[in-house]
Amino acid sequence: MAKPEIRMTVNGRERELFVEPWRTLLDVLREDLDLTGAKLGCEGGECGGCTVILNGAPVVSCMALAADAHGKEILTIEGISENDELHPLQEEFLRLSSFQCGYCAPGLVMSAKALLDETPNPTEAEIRVAIAGNLCRCTAYVRIVKAIQLVAAQGGA
Ligand code: FES
Ligand code: FES
User: Fold this and answer.
1) Euclidean distance between the first and final Cα of the chain, in Å?
2) Rounded distance from Cα 136 to ligand 2 centre (Å)
3) Is the pTM of this model over 0.90?
4) Residue whose CA lies nearest to ligand 1 atom number 3
5) Distance between CA 115 and CA 142 in Å, rounded?
6) What tens digit of pLDDT does each residue of 112-151 get?
7) How far is the CA of 141 from the centre of ligand 2 (A)?
8) Is residue 60 within 8 Å of residue 134, measured between CB atoms?
């Protein structure tokens, strides 16, 4: 089967790839670009472990076709730190020990970042809505919500 060429900007870098039309964005990010931060969990749009930011909005990349990302900008967890320094959300999540196994963490960070980029001072309800699609099997979300509130109070993501 012919592999259409797609072009997308991933973490600020132009990428050109030939991918089969049925492959997901998550698969291409992980397998072709070695960006393994986004996690494969349910593979059905339910857990949020694969969340990345596409043209400014959070998407579950296991449900997005790579071909549909042609011409778009994608930000993954690997792209949010600068100069080898963790992003403020990562710092705060770590400081509060918000996670246990950490499998959900990349997706939660990306959902939180998309929220704070759009809504710098969210209410607790807005935070909970923003991360409602990110399932954590280990924690009670209290420290996750707290970390996002603290980053917002510090001036956002
Ligand atoms: S792996 Fe994509 S939502 Fe669960
Ligand atoms: S810390 Fe284990 S799934 Fe969230």
Assistant:
1) 42
2) 4
3) yes
4) 45
5) 17
6) 999 999 999 999 999 999 999 999 999 889 999 999 999 9
7) 10
8) no
Q: Which of 102, 19, 112 is nearest to 68 (CA)?
A: 19
Q: What does each C-alpha distance from 80 to 37, 42, 63, 77, 157 come to in angstroms?
A: 11, 24, 22, 6, 10
Is residue 9 within 6 Å of ligand 2 at its C-beta? no
Domains of the chain: 5-79 (3.10.20.30), 88-153 (1.10.150.120)
Amino acid at 157: A
What is the tens place of the pLDDT at every residue in 59-103? 999 999 999 999 999 999 999 998 889 999 999 999 999 999 999
Helix (H, G, I), strand (E, B) or coil at 53: strand
Look up residue 40 and give its DSSP letter.
Answer: -
Give the bridge partners for 13, in sequence order.
10
